[in-house]
Each structure stands twice: as structure tokens, then as C-alpha cells.
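In the previous chapter we treated chains in isolation. Here, by contrast, the input contains two separate entities that must be folded as one system, with a combined length of 289 residues.
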Amino acid sequence: MIGFWIAAAVALLATALAVTRRHPVHALLYLVVSLLAVAVLFLLLGAAFAAALEVVIYAGAIMVLFLFVVMLLDLGPEAADSTRGRTAPAAWLGPGLLAAILAAELAWIVRSGSSAEGATVVDPAAVGTLLFGAWILGVELAGMLLLAALVGAFHLGRKGEAE
Amino acid sequence: MIGAPAQALLVAAALFALGLLAVLVRRNLVFTLLGIEVMLNASGLAFVAAGARWGDAAGQGMLLFVLAVAAAEVAVGLALVLQVARRFGTLDPDRLLDLAESPQGEKDGEEHASGARTAVKGGSRA
């Protein structure tokens, strides 16, 4: 349970820092750490598939998209000067420390194989059976939603769109 | 001591509150989207905690759908933010409201377009 509390504390602290930063890139770094902490929580709740989803899709794709667009908005004459500002310790020290705590905790969980009390382990096979069986229509609809979002984002993000 | 899934629900509630705070207080559209993402993540945590409590795979299945919705919403939302930054040069909702309501809104937008680069530095009421 101590692992659960550490991961929960890191998640809450990282999110609180994320919503209070001035610079959007700093905030997004803290949010990535928060998502990783929630993934560790998923692992401790016996939801390994959910943990993998959270890291690969949420932290790995959605947050990267966010970072790309935010950095795209920031381009300008001061980009060259701000490089030093972006690599300054103030930017990465906090998220790095929190991520190191999470990494140590992950190593400890994997070695000791502990899980939180009261949580039933639901393995990926059961989730796969559900998604490809009873919920197949939902999965297909989610795919269509993503297609609609893709087309919409492409159209809305174009330059010179006169409307 | 209540079980881990119940504690996870409490953590999810706290995360949701933080996300809501970000949406309400921050004066920058990027941080509004960030707050929405935090809230979606918190709801996913609630789903998975419920699935862990009852040993049901539906919790993680719902997380997949929540993630799909979050991805779709972030893509479209960021495209809109890009357009707003290009046209009006600011991401401050209060200033955007003034620009949108004034009859000079469109003209001001073109003049301010070059200011888009400095538009992203976050603002906050606090």
C-alpha cells in the first residue's frame, strides 16, 4: 500500500504543479509525470493493460501532440534565445525528480510483484475478450470518432482558411 | 483502512478538482485544454478503480474509450487554438471576448497576427 500512496502523492503533486506553472511547456512536463504516476496506480490496481494504455497513448501520443502544438505556437524571433531558458534546470529538475521517484517505485513493484489490497487483478486477456467480443461495436465507433477528429483537425488547422 | 480502489476514487476526485480549477482560473486557452485533459484522466482512473473493485474488465474497456475521446478532443481543440492564435494574436479568453464582440474584431485580428508568438505565455488570475 505504501507504493500506492507514493504514486498517488506524485500524481497529485505533479498535477497541482502542472496547473500552476506560467510556461505551458513546464506545465505539460509535469502533466506527463502525472500521467506516468497514474499508470503506476493502474499497475498497483492490477490493471496492467490500462497502465500500458496510459503510458503509450496518453503520455506517449496525446501529450506529445500537445507539446508539439504548444511549441509550434511559440516559434518566433526569440526562439533562439529561449533555448537556454528551456534547457535550464528550472524546467526539468522538478519533473525529473518526480519521474525518478516513479522509476524507482516501478522497479520495486516489478521485483516484488506487489499489488494493492482490495484490488482484483484483471489481466489483458479479459480486456481483449471484452473489446473484441461484446464491445466490438464501441471499438469501431471509437475508430470512426478518431477519423472524424483527424479530418476535422486537418481542416481546422490549415493556414489561410478564410472563415 | 478502506481498500485501494476506494482510495483511488478519492485520488480521482482530487485530480478532477485540480483539472476543474485549471479550466476555471487560468486565462490561457492552452491551460483550459490542459485542465480538460486532467479531468478526463481522472475519470479514467475512476473507471479503472471501479473495474479493479469488482474484477470487471469493463473498467479498462471504458478507459480505452475515454482515451479515444480525449485524443479526438485534443486534436480538434489544438487545431482551433492554432487558428485563434494566428487570427487574433492572443490566447487570453477575456481579450478574445472583447475582440469578438467589438465590430473592429476582424481588423484587429489581422493587425495582431504578428503578436501570436508571444500569445502563448500563460496568464493567471492569481
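The radius of gyration of chain B is 19 Å. The longest helix of chain B spans residues 58-88. Compare these points with the single-chain example from earlier in the chapter.
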